[in-house]
Amino acid sequence: MIDTTANTEWPFPPPLMPMEAEVADDLPSPPGWGYEPKWDGFRAVMWSRSATADPRLDSRNAKPLSRYFPELRPALEQLPPGTVADGEVVVITRGRLDFDAL
Q: Which of 15, 41, 60, 71 minimizes the number of CB atoms within 10 Å of its CB?
């Protein structure tokens, strides 16, 4: 377990809860509204490497995911220092999302 309590290089201290999408019948209208497709994967918050901590990958419940996706470590290591990204871990097989492959 990495102690990040002293880390001041990320703009937010981990763990951080990702944003959750809301279901709607219609696409929102501008101004000030956006939308995103529903991906079939694992919602995650990604943290860049810092001088005091390894990169992190946390679930939407703030549980560590890095051990389940070690192949993502090289990509996380390429994030600029101080980066915190909220996204979805997906697998694409033959041009389609493949949740079972996760």
A: 71
